[in-house]
Amino acid sequence: MQIASESINNENLLQLGRRVAELADSKDVDGIVITHGTDTLEETAYFLNLVEKTDKPIVVVGSMRPGTAMSADGMLNLYNAVAVAGSKEARGKGVLVTMNDEIQSGRDVSKMINIKTEAFKSPWGPLGMVVEGKSYWFRLPAKRHTMDSEFDIKNIKSLPDVEIAYGYGNVSDTAYKALAQAGAKAIIHAGTGNGSVSSKVVPALVELRKQGVQIIRSSHVNAGGMVLRNAEQPDDKYDWVAALDLNPQKARILAMVALTKTQDSKELQRMFWEY
To answer: What is each CA distance from 156 to 33, 40, 256, 260, in whole angstroms?
Structure first.
């Protein structure tokens, strides 16, 4: 696909996921590298991390500078991606992102800045590094992924509509209501701090949940917001879901995939704990 990554839609994700699964099933493929625009690279990486049933390395890679720029980073990033995808040590570690000499978990990593080559960071640190084509590992992903996932791209025909509404000072409930009216099956609340919800918005979200819309509290804190269940809001009382450390865009990815399996909020919360 020749698509600017900010324009990638759910159908593109499904198409890519099926192609990756097809390649992973091929006996003459040892690893897979996907070149990707950086704007939604983290979303694609997490989606693949959830739905690809393989222990073969899958590496998503991009560049922060064009090839014509001084100190262009694309060539080395791509070289490192191929080196990692071809290494036996990378097997079974889930979908990876290789940028700026670091090996990041596709589950954890996010684009934290848009003007530096070290744009992609995880609040929990990289899994390892690539030095002169050799990978060095320091930690393993703790969350369920790929072979251990209950989701399988081969069983997903379509993805439900999940939308994100942003929390801020003096926020109104207009966006939440409009998204639900437009057909959203779940709304990710990109809240302040610990996924806080303004008192002006709470009644609308309570009502939307009664109407069947899943309400998932996330945080737009950049360096790693942790939304704890029943902190700030009584999630048990309102039947809402806490996204834990997943940022809003990653919470949306998990919610879409999870809703292909269940509509039960307790099951959704379990999935947010495990993935």
So the answer is: 22, 21, 10, 7
CB atoms within 10 A of CB 48: 26
What's the pTM?
Answer: 0.97
- Cα-Cα-Cα-Cα torsion 127, 130, 134, 136, nearest 10 degrees, comes to -30
**Complete domains list, the chain, with CATH:** 5-148 (3.40.50.1170), 160-274 (3.40.50.40)
> Considering the chain, what is the average pLDDT of its residues?
97
* pLDDT classification of 130: cutoffs 50, 70, 90: very high
Per residue in 204-255, pLDDT (tens digit) is: 999 999 999 999 999 999 766 899 999 989 999 999 999 999 999 999 999 9
Q: For the residues of the chain, what is the DSSP string, one character each? A: ----GGG--HHHHHHHHHHHHHHHT-TT---EEEE--SSSHHHHHHHHHHH----S-EEEE--SS-TTSTT--HHHHHHHHHHHHT-GGGTTS-EEEEETTEEEETTT-EE--SSSTT-EE-TT--SEEEETTEEEE-----S--GGG-S--GGG------EEEEE--TT--SHHHHHHHHTT-SEEEEEEBTTTB--TTTHHHHHHHHHTT-EEEEEE--TTT--B-TTSSS-HHHHT-EE-BT--HHHHHHHHHHHTTT---HHHHHHHHHH-
pLDDT at 222: 77
Residue 125 has pLDDT above 80, yes or no: yes
Give the burial class of 169: count Cβ atoms within 10 A of its Cβ; 0-12 exposed, 13-18 middle, 19 or more buried: exposed
State the angle between helix axes of 41-51 and 10-24 in degrees (0 to 180), rounded to the nearest 10: 50
